[in-house]
Amino acid sequence: MKRVSFVLSFLMILSLLLSACAGAAPGAPAASSGAAAATESGAAATGSGEGITLTYMASQGWIQDAELELAKKFEEQTGIHVDYQIIPADQYFSVLKTKLNSGEATDIFGGQSGKTDLKVQYDVEKNAVDLTGEEWTQRHDPISLDQVSLNGKVYGAEIWDTIASNYFVVNYNKKIFEEQGLSVPKTYAEFKDICLKLKDAGINPIYEPMSDGWHHVLWFPMVGPRYEELNPGLADKLNANETTFAETAVMVDAMTQLKELYDLGCFGENALSDAVADTDAKLASGEYAMSVTPLAQPASTEAAFPDVPASTFGFFPMPLVDNQLAPAHPAGPSKFIYSGSPHIAEAKQYLAFLMEPENLQYLLDNTPAFVGLNFSGVTAKWTPEQQAFLDTYPAKTIVYQDAVNYLNPQWIDMGKDMVAMFTGSMTPEDVLKSIDQRRADMAATANDPAWKK
Question: Is residue 378 part of a domain?
Fold first, then answer.
């Protein structure tokens, strides 16, 4: 993420201090990505009915404008105010862990789904409310519901587009490719050749923003289906502690190829300081020919720059190690109710409200980044380009941040190691060994029997 201002950092620290003293976590609502917070902080929680404020903490980018509008509608209907507290992504999990450990979490907290995250990051069996009996679980996509479940119980609600917003692929400018006589690559060698030809033509090949700390990591675990294709059962072996990342040749190759793209200047001159928030502008201007984005990105670009239609762009899989598979990714930002909340009933009421079919449809219809939602009874809005990608590229297995234990929780740390690799202080092998060590540390914390052999 962009560096957080001193003022925001001060407010976050002040929020934690006030929480410790007052036994609540109201905080100061910050703006979500591209939107103001739902309303100003409401009255302190007083029990039930009018005057209750539900506090809700989430990472930047997880809360859509349409959800903020639904929160206003919920308040109009119930008198219950929802105070959204948006934290910069590179600080979110440390702030969340501090609040959970101190017993001062917000009524609702956001988190990435996935069984490892539920167990290691949030300890949901202690810190979250069992939602198994809620009506909406019957309409939730079973694969996504499994990602917010642990030991047979549902602990979270994943209201997210797990295809258009979760399938991170190479988004390319079809006009630039046509003008330069380029075609969609099927191998890494072809992809590298395209990048070099674009550079020779004075066009930056790939917009790869690294200042946010997370985006450049996508290149590695999103290619997990290819690792699995070349090494059937690899995810199971990693989870059983029968092999490591550093011992897996295809992973060494993938990280080495990514380093080569950086060294060749394929990410432009300012990749280390570039920001995700500028992606639409960079793609719309034609300054860059490609970027790794969700399938929904062109709709976002068109919304921001109406003279650049979404049909300008097409898609293909990230072709590291010759990958030609779609990155199936059923996990995503999810909502959990804090077990220590004094307003559990009201929080359940709010989640149920968000997941009423008409409200899900409103969220979908009014969120450019979403094309579908992982609930039955909602009408999707696929474009021809998105449908062409889904028809062309199979999704055989899920991405490795979902398939491999103890990988997703170290996302930001992986990002730091990869920057160190790009700048020359770590090798690809060093990065993989570092991933293995963090996995071992988390497994030990979780008392994983596979690491006690």
Answer: no
Beta strands in 271-417 (DSSP E): 288-293, 313-316, 333-337
Q: What is the CATH number of the domain that holds 240?
A: 3.40.190.10
Q: Is 33 exposed, middle or buried (0-12, 13-18, 19+ CB in 10 A)?
A: middle
Distance CA 143, CA 168 (A): 18
Same domain, 117 and 176: no
Number of domains forming the structure of the chain: 2
pLDDT in tens, 324-347: 999 988 888 999 999 999 999 999
Residues 319, 230 share a domain: yes
Is 300 within 8 Å of 306 (Cβ atoms)? no
Phi-psi region of 102 (alpha: psi -120 to 50; beta: other; left: phi over 0): alpha
DSSP 214: S
113-123 burial, b if ≥16 CB within 10 A, otherwise e?
Answer: bbbbbbbbbbb
Rounded CA separation 321/181 (Å): 24
Domain that residue 63 falls in = 6-160+331-365
Per the CB < 8 A criterion, the answer to whether 160 and 334 are in contact is yes
What is the spatial distance between Cα 3 and Cα 370, in angstroms, rounded to a whole number?
27
Q: Enter the pTM of the model.
A: 0.72
Q: Write the pLDDT tens digit of every residue in 157-167.
A: 999 988 878 88
Q: Based on the domain organization, do 116 and 240 belong to the same domain?
A: no
